[in-house]
Amino acid sequence: MTTVAFQGEPGAFGEEAVAGWFGTTADPVPVPTFSAVCAAVESGAADAGVLPLENSLAGTVGDALDALAGGSLRVVGEVLLPIRHQLLGLPGADLAGIERVSSHWQALAQCERFLSTRGWQVIPAADTAGAARELVEAGDPRAAAIASRAAGERYGLVMLAADIHDSDHNMTRFAVLTRADARTPQPDGGLAPTGGGRETLLTFETGHRPGDLHRALGTLADAGINLSRIESRPSGDGPWRYRFLIQVGGDADAEPLRSALVGLGGHTRSLRVLGSFDTAGGDD
Fold first, then answer.
1. What is the 8-class DSSP label of residue 185?
2. What pLDDT, in 10s, does the model give residues 230-255?
3. Which residues 6+ apart lie within 8 Å of 105 measured at CB?
4. Which ranges constitute the DSSP H helices of 54-211?
5. Is 265 exposed, middle or buried (0-12, 13-18, 19+ CB in 10 A)?
6. How many helices (H) does the chain have, and how many strands (E)?
7. Which of 5, 200, 218, 260 could form a cystine bridge with 276, CB 3.0-4.6 A?
């Protein structure tokens, strides 16, 4: 059985992403942070891992991007996981008696419209399922947690309000990670990607002269490579130094992207291909 690390407690959305890719062939391993996911895979404590990279409502998960870009792991796939948030309380609690709610900051952001009408105290937590577990441990009927239906069932909570996210188009994109020298696992879950072709995730740093980023990205445009995503994150090399993370069409080991990456490397201070993988089909 494949051991797969995810951030959070049992019942977290990361655990659902594990099942979405690996199906019943996975043994999910909960760890406390995104860096711990990468460390578990890099050390061999886990065979693979999943990291949430972005949410369709709340945007980028910066800490996860930093953990990925700063490590040595390879992205071998993606999972687009529908996110359905429930307001959970202790048995016997009722919506009128709630005074405060806790969850991961991303979940709180995804439910902002619902929360803004309540006047409750909002308390960030390390993850959604952890908020559900802590609610049980505290035993306070005036408190609630935002988490998945699975987390509520796992921890014996009741649903005070269903599907409280701001939009039904709420999805989180998870990256599936392995060591660079590991065999690529075959997807066996219902959320394995189909229909989207191959894409490549990579990270690079440029110089700081005017036009450096333009010249770097121009090599991709000149080769007809589609750029579907770009993020900038602190590089850790000093104040106001940044690395770019981009996702482009094509496979790094096939033309035309293979040659384009050679050209890109000539305009960057550092360049690392994070992985090429099948993507889910979607509307453009």
1. P
2. 999 988 777 778 899 999 999 999 99
3. 124
4. 62-69, 105-110, 112-115, 128-138, 149-154
5. middle
6. 9, 15
7. 200
